[in-house]
Structures are given as structure tokens and as C-alpha cells.
């Protein structure tokens, strides 16, 4: 396949799945060609809706996402799945392992699946996930379902980019309390109580109601949806609640606010990276950085003074 951004993005816009996969790789790499793709694709974006699905490992996110995607496809929507989770069973359009078999469903229904590894690079993850969504948007998907593990700041940041966040909780696991501690409960728009075939559903419901009653300035009251992902029970209800949330979000201005945050995330993170590497280059080529580090090592100056001096050198105060 041709590898230059012009041809790749043209093929992507014409509906080529291999071109989309290639563009996503370039975007994930974070290099100049990925940036060029983004530039060319951006005018074709603005329609996709992002559904974030998060929760503890093993909560049943992948199973639920699978069901959710199928339900949306039944409703005539084009759906992509973006799993930001190295342990995710999805790979290259199919699901690996014996837990979930989705490859046939994927190819029949045209659900596009992509896994992204979690990377630790400076701001390296969220902007790439966000930029990937622009590519999916340009490719004409109506929805992207973003699966992230609900632990760690990066994951919370990513799922915070979603138009609607579904928090998957499991009864009998102390999930309610854990989610509260992790701060993830604050970003949930909908609670999906998965594995409702387990004991403890009502206890979890009670916990969640207590948490919700403590919240201040509630504009949107998070619905609780009981699901059994493995049996595809409650999925239609969940899809309906997502639609209700998105309607509310559009009408209340929340949707616009989130889209603003989304582009802010992309632009600010990239800007931050560029500024940092530019500054570091300048400080390095003058030997200024080494000098400062050396002096901090030998205790001639302290780290705070070093930063201040380097900032002054760059003329940024
Ligand atoms: N009993 C029961 N098991 C489920 C349900 N949903 C998922 N599971 C199982 O839970 C395990 C973890 O599911 P998975 O979707 O990989 O969870 P993830 O780590 O959150 O993505 C798998 O063995 C699933 O079959 C459910 O509603 N009921
Ligand atoms: Mg998973």
C-alpha cells in the first residue's frame, strides 16, 4: 500500500479499511506523517460519538463492549472499538483467547476493532487516542467505543474524552467503594451493573444511590442499568440510556464543553511536547542543561535554582 499521507487519507476517505489501519499506526507512532494525516483528515470530522467504557479488570468490559457494538450495528450504526488496554483480548479486528470469540461477528457486521498499548511517554497516550478518534471519525463511523481499564491517571484522562462514560461495576466486589476511591465515579455518566446474575446487586445499587445522594449540583442523574453481558441482557436498555444521555448532553451544552476539552487535549498535549523538546534542544546544544545538572549533582546549586536558571536562559519567566 502507498505510504504517503495524501494517498493513505484519500483511500481512508474512500472507505479502505487497510488504509485506516495504516493511518492509525502512523498516528499512534506520533511522528510527522501521522500529524500530516490528521491535518488532511480533520476537515472530514465532527460526527462521531465517543462512548467510553471503563471499570476494573475482569468487570466484563470487553464482553459488554462487544454486545454494545452489536446492538448499535443492529440499529444501523457504523461502530469502531478502540481498546486502550494491553491486556485486551482484541487484536487486528478479531478477539483473541477463548474467553470471547468475536472474529466472525466483527467481519460480518463490519465492526472495526483496534487495540492501543498504554504508553508512558510524556503526554504520549491521550493525544494519540484522541487523534485516532479523529481518523475513525473521518472514516465515517457513527460511534467509537473506547474501552479503558479504570485504573491510573492516563486511563481516567482518556475516558474523560468520551461523550458518554459508562462505568462497569460488578456486585459483590466492593466495586462501588473502590470506584469512589479512585475518583472514577465522578466521571461516570451511566453505571452499568454487570454480572447481575451474581449476588449483591441490590447492595451495590444501594451503595451507588448513597454516593449519588452525596453529589452536589447534579444536572445529570446517572442511571443505573443492570446488565448480564455474557447473556446480552440489558444491552438494549444501556443503548437507550446512552441515547438519552447524549440528547441531554447536546441540549444542556455539556456535549459542546466536552468537545472543547477534547480538542484542547489534542492541541495542548502536542504543543507541550513540541515546546519541551524545542526547549531541551536549545538547552542541550548550549551545554546549559548538562552544566546545571552537573552543579545539582555536586550540590553546588539546588534543583529549584537549576530550573529557575534554565527558564531564565530560555527567556521564559
Ligand atoms: N457471570 C457473568 N460473567 C461475565 C459477565 N460479563 C462478563 N463475564 C465474564 O467475566 C470475565 C471477564 O470479562 P471481560 O469482558 O474480559 O472483562 P474486562 O477485563 O473488563 O474486559 C469473562 O470470563 C467473561 O465471560 C456477566 O454478565 N456475567
Ligand atoms: Mg477487556
How would you sum up this structure, described in words?
This protein has 317 residues and is of the alpha/beta class. It folds into 3 domains: 1-43, no CATH class; 45-252, P-loop containing nucleotide triphosphate hydrolases (Rossmann fold), CATH 3.40.50.300; 268-313, no CATH class. The protein is built from 13 helices and 9 strands. The protein has helices spanning 5-13, 17-29, 32-41, 61-74, 103-109, 126-138, 153-159, 175-182, 201-214, 235-252, 254-285, 288-297, 303-313, and strands at 49-55, 79-84, 90-91, 94-95, 112-116, 143-149, 164-169, 190-193, 224-226. It has a 7-stranded parallel β-sheet, sandwiched between helices. It has a two-stranded antiparallel sheet with strand order 3-4. Helix 1 (5-13) crosses helix 2 and helix 1 (5-13) crosses helix 3. The longest helix has 32 residues, at 254-285. The protein is globular, with a radius of gyration of 22 Å. It starts with a helix and ends with a helix. Guanosine-5'-diphosphate (GDP) binds next to helix 4.
Task: Name the features.
317 residues; alpha/beta; Rossmann fold; 3 domains; two-stranded antiparallel ribbon; 13 helices; 9 strands; globular; binds guanosine-5'-diphosphate; binds magnesium ion
Dominant shape: globular
Order of helices and strands: HHHEHEEEHEHEHEHEHEHHHH
Number of domains: 3
- The CATH class assignment of the largest domain is Alpha Beta
**What is the number of beta strands?**
9
How many helices?
13
Low-confidence stretches: 91-107, 120-124
How far apart the termini lie comes to: 48 Å
Indicate the CATH architecture of the largest domain. Answer: 3-Layer(aba) Sandwich
Strand content: 5-15%
Mind telling me the CATH superfamily name of the largest domain? P-loop containing nucleotide triphosphate hydrolases
**Class by SSE composition:** alpha/beta
Amino acid at each position: 500500500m502507498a505510504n504517503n499521507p495524501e494517498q493513505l487519507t484519500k483511500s481512508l476517505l474512500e472507505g479502505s479499511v487497510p488504509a485506516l489501519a495504516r493511518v492509525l499506526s502512523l498516528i499512534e507512532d506520533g511522528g510527522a506523517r501521522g500529524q500530516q494525516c490528521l491535518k488532511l483528515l480533520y476537515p472530514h470530522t465532527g460526527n462521531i460519538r465517543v462512548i467510553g467504557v471503563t471499570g476494573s479488570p475482569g468487570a466484563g468490559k470487553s464482553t459488554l463492549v462487544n454486545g454494545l457494538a452489536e446492538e448499535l450495528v443492529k440499529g444501523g450504526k457504523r461502530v469502531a472499538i478502540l481498546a486502550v488496554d494491553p491486556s485486551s483480548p482484541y487484536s487486528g479486528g478479531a478477539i483473541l483467547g477463548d474467553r470471547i470469540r468475536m472474529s466472525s461477528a466483527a467481519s460480518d457486521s463490519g465492526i472495526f476493532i483496534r487495540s492501543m498499548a498504554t504508553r508512558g511517554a510524556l503526554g504520549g497516550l491521550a493525544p494519540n487516542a484522541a487523534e485516532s478518534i479523529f481518523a475513525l471519525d473521518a472514516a465515517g463511523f457513527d460511534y467509537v467505543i473506547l474501552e479503558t481499564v479504570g485504573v491510573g491517571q492516563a486511563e481516567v484522562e482518556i475516558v474523560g474524552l468520551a461523550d458518554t462514560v459508562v462505568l462497569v461495576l460488578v456486585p459483590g466486589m466492593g466495586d462501588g467503594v473502590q470506584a469512589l476511591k479512585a475518583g472514577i465515579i465522578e466521571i461516570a455518566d451511566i453505571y452499568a451493573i454487570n454480572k447481575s446474575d451474581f449476588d449483591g446487586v441490590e447492595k451495590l445499587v444501594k451503595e451507588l444511590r448513597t454516593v449519588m445522594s452525596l453529589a452536589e449540583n447534579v444536572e445529570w442523574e446517572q442511571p443505573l442499568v443492570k446488565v448480564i453481558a455474557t447473556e446480552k441482557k440489558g444491552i438494549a436498555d444501556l443503548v437507550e440510556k446512552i441515547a438519552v444521555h447524549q440528547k441531554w448532553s447536546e441540549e444542556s451544552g455539556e456535549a459542546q464543553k466536552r468537545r472543547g476539552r477534547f480538542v484542547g487535549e489534542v492541541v495542548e498535549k502536542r504543543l507541550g511536547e513540541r515546546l519541551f523538546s524545542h526547549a531541551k534542544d536549545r538547552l542541550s546544544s548550549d551545554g546549559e542543561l548538562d552544566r546545571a545538572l552537573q552543579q545539582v549533582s555536586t550540590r553546588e546549586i539546588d534543583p529549584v535554582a537549576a530550573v529557575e536558571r534554565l527558564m531564565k536562559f530560555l527567556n521564559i519567566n
